[in-house]
């Protein structure tokens, strides 16, 4: 359950250059000193609120919740400080980073402790594990999945540990594979009518021990007159797709070779 934001009445020592939210159309303004605080006009009185732990003020109806956003998404804190990182002072209440398992703050996106391909999204202290796909690694600076060459500390992807410039099978796929380039994997596809051989680790003429000869589907323009009339039932735009043709199953094209049982 989300905790309501902490709020405080306007203090006598409030900076004189602080904008009064009650004099603005939105009735909400950011704090002039702290980027994780904002002022809201309540009953014609300015009241100070804290953003949820780990977030900063972005503006009314903006951000991920309560007008607050992840601090790295924009220059929200330029020229300002985080109240949550200030030392406790008289008559002021500061909450430092509140950590839970896998979460440095209650809200945020954080790197995985042991994996370069995984990361954590934290919402009110609850961590959810996420996975980077397509050969990407988690970039702590960008807070997102990125190409391995842009990620410090994870210079080699686990897929390319054995051979930094070799090929790696992609599951049971017969025509797709990983190509490692300097330790970074790139998803590749074998040319038409070739399959990926898991033993030689290259595209070869089939069949192989794992993959049959790729089937070539009949072109969609193939429309026997009699069948077209039956399928179209008077619709001149109907396209007949024979269910028994090689490479067509249930009206869908089947690409590449198929795995042997």
Per-chain topology:
Elements: E1 7-9, E2 28-30, E3 37-42, E4 45-50, E5 56-57, E6 68-69, E7 108-111, E8 118-123, E9 126-131, E10 137-139, E11 144-146, E12 167-169, E13 176-181, E14 184-189, E15 195-197, E16 202-204, H1 225-232, E17 248-249, E18 252-253
Antiparallel strand pairs: 1-4, 2-3, 3-4, 5-6, 7-8, 8-9, 10-11, 12-13, 13-14, 15-16, 17-18
Question: Could you explain the architecture of this structure?
Answer:
By secondary structure, this protein is mainly beta. Helices cover 3% and strands 26% of the residues. A 4-stranded antiparallel sheet has the order 1-4-3-2, with no helix packed on it. A hairpin with a 2-residue loop joins strand 8 and strand 9 (126-131).
Share in helix: under 10%
Order of helices and strands: EEEEEEEEEEEEEEEEHEE
What would the principal axes of the Cα set say about the shape? elongated
Number of strands: 18
| Spatial order of strands in the largest sheet | 1-4-3-2
Mean of residue pLDDT values: 77
CATH architecture type of the largest domain: Beta Complex
Q: Please give the CATH class of the largest domain.
A: Mainly Beta
The largest sheet is: 4 strands, antiparallel
Helix run count: 1
CATH level-3 fold name of the largest domain: Antimicrobial Protein, Tachycitin, Chain A
Distance between the termini: 49 Å
Secondary-structure-derived class: mainly beta
Total domain modules: 3
The low-confidence parts are: 1-13, 87-91, 220-258
């Amino acid at each position: 359950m989300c905790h309501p934001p902490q709020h405080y009445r306007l203090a006598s020592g409030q900076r004189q250059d602080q904008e009064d939210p009650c004099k603005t159309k939105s009735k909400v303004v950011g704090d002039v000193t702290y980027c994780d605080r904002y002022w809201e006009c309540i009953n014609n009185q300015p009241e100070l609120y804290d953003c949820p732990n780990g977030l900063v003020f972005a503006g009314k109806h903006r951000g991920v919740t309560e007008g607050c956003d992840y601090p790295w998404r924009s220059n929200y804190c330029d020229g300002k400080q985080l109240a949550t990182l200030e030392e406790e002072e008289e008559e002021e209440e500061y909450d430092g980073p509140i950590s839970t398992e896998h979460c440095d703050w209650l809200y945020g996106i954080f790197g995985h402790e042991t994996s370069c391909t995984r990361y954590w999204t934290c919402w009110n202290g609850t961590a959810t594990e996420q996975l980077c796909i397509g050969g990407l690694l988690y970039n702590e600076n960008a807070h997102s999945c990125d190409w391995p060459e842009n990620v410090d500390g994870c210079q080699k992807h686990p897929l390319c540990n054995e051979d930094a410039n070799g090929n790696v099978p992609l599951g049971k796929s017969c025509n797709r594979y990983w190509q490692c380039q300097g330790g970074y994997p790139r998803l590749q596809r074998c040319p038409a009518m070739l399959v990926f051989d898991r033993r030689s680790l290259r595209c070869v003429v089939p069949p192989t021990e794992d993959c049959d000869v790729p089937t070539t589907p009949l072109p969609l323009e193939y429309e026997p007159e009699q069948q077209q009339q039956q399928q179209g039932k008077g619709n001149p735009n109907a396209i007949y797709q024979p269910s028994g043709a090689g490479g067509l199953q249930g009206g869908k094209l089947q690409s590449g070779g198929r795995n042997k049982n």
